[in-house]
Amino acid sequence: MACRLPVEWFALDAGGLPTLGLRQFMIRFVPVLIFFLAALQEQVPAKPQPNVLLIMADDLGYSDLGCYGGEIKTPYLDNLARGGLRYTHFYNTARCWPTRAALLTGYYAQQVGRDKLPGSKRRGSRPSWAPLVTVDLKRAGYRCYHAGKWHLDGMPMKNGFDRSYYLKDQGRFFSPQVHWKDDVRLPPVKRGSGYYGTTAVADAAVNHLREHAETHADKPFFHYLAFAAPHFPLHAPPEDIARCRERYAGGWDQIRAERWNRIKKLGIAKGELPAVERGIGPPYHFPDHLKLLGPGEVNRPLPWNKLTPEQQVFQQDKMAIHAAMIERMDQELGRVFHQLRRMKAWENTLILFLSDNGASAEIMVRADGHDPEAPAGSAATYLCLGPGWSTACNTPFRRHKTWVHEGGCASPLIVHWPRGIKETGTLRHTPAHVIDIAPTLLGLAGLESRRQVPSPGRTLSSTFTGDGKALHAELWWLHEGHRALRQGDWKLVAAEGDPWELYNLAEDRTETRNLATRHPERVKALEKRWESMADSFREGLKTSR
Ligand SMILES: [Ca+2]
């Protein structure tokens, strides 16, 4: 708002001093000063605001990273964990697009029309009262950058980002046909050009950060770095795969047992390792695709020693590619972290790393199809992790991506911020959810949320100094008919079409002892609460769109 002040207020005497007396000065200028200070308080939050690097992996299992018990070599992320915090009860929504909507708005995806409620149609676009967090961060002076997967409604530059490399093609890591730079379509990439999606996404991030240092060093930045790895198709450079292959010769039962031992030693989880649910396979069924993949593919998590030698070799290759994709992501993150250090932003950058859902039991063939004669992991192949390995990657939990048992919706979360978090290498056990990330960023930017509909998300800031009071009375899930509610240590959960199961996660984090028949009243009360939250989301969408 333009503000004109009387000209005589600025009249100076011959010596350049105001002609006004002290009393007149006080009367005239003090209210103006108060006005300007109030305006400054509103528009310019306390400095220095932290930069933010929000890193999301796609379909990464709970224990894939070394610092969460995995055998996959992730030295850069492990180093981040050593210098920061690891959350053990952090949750996503169990699927790509609802997690991304929740992450960048601070609402459950169903509240903002980005996932279905019971009885509703397909997902749509967000209501106008649910802009992305970038819109607020810009108000606080941030420059906002995006690189990688999007899977939100609208385009990045129209949603508050100042720069973007948007890799839309999810079927081709070596030759994407659809990708954009700053919302302008780029030419398709030819096979054999040396392009690899994970590297290209990290290149974009490094370029954005370099440009920021050169031209906007006075401003804080928010960089959203969303890798498409290790989502299918399993594509990786051959030399990366070769480094991982031997490690998986012993099969998924061995890897799962080894991960569980490390998880217990690290203090990430305790309890019992659940029995493998041998009958649970991919969530969607494509019998023709299975046929195309040949006799090596297995659509159930069978005991490894029941597989044929041909199946064992085929499956070993798949996990080697999954691991290679994660190791490549970690190496590329090393370059991004190096850039942060070069621009002297390491100390005051809040880095968060998480996954959008658990490892995936899906098996399908899309994009350019699958050539069984081509080397596994090359551009001509289309392989998915499948239920045997995703069971191992989600150790110690049950189920996979799409389900809302812990295997589907529990995520690693690493939080690193030297200037703001003094403890290092420590675990946090406070339950938290992707809806908490946007409120955390707003709080650190010195902003209050101005949303018409209050966000259910809470800032994680209080957990930076320790586990204290719970952030949430409850957390809520629904995806593809799979439902859950966590209230304190109690979790009510049901797969689509199944009756409710009840677990006490304090004693049984791995969901092995269903207490539903022992506590029918608790089941009823939690179910009622689940329904009432769904109703309130439905009403919110109806009344305030
Ligand atoms: Ca995903």
Q: How much strand? A: 5-15%
Number of helices: 13
Q: Report, as a whole number of angstroms, the end-to-end distance.
A: 28 Å
SSE pattern: HEHEHHEEEEHEHHHHEHHEEEHEEEEH
Any idea of the CATH class? Alpha Beta
Let me know the number of strands: 15
Structural class given helices, strands, pairing? alpha/beta
Shape: globular
Taking all Cα atoms into account, the compactness measure Rg is 25 Å
Task: Report the helical percentage.
Answer: 25-40%
Count of separate structural domains:
1
The CATH homologous superfamily is termed Alkaline Phosphatase, subunit A
Largest sheet: 11 strands, mixed
Features:
545 residues, alpha/beta, 13 helices, 15 strands, disordered N terminus
Describe this structure in words.
This protein is an alpha/beta fold. The chain has helices at 22-43, 75-82, 96-105, 133-139, 197-215, 238-245, 252-266, 287-293, 309-342, 386-393, 406-409, 437-444, 520-543; strands at residues 51-57, 85-91, 143-148, 163-167, 179-181, 184-185, 221-226, 349-355, 410-416, 426-428, 432-433, 475-479, 482-487, 490-494, 501-504. Strands 1, 2, 3, 4, 5, 6, 7, 8, 9, 10 and 11 form an eleven-stranded mixed beta sheet that branches. Helix 5 (197-215) packs parallel to helix 9 (309-342), helix 6 crosses helix 9 and helix 7 runs parallel beside helix 10. Mean pLDDT is 92; it is low at 1-20 and 34-44. Bound molecules: calcium ion. The site of calcium ion has 6 residues, from loops.
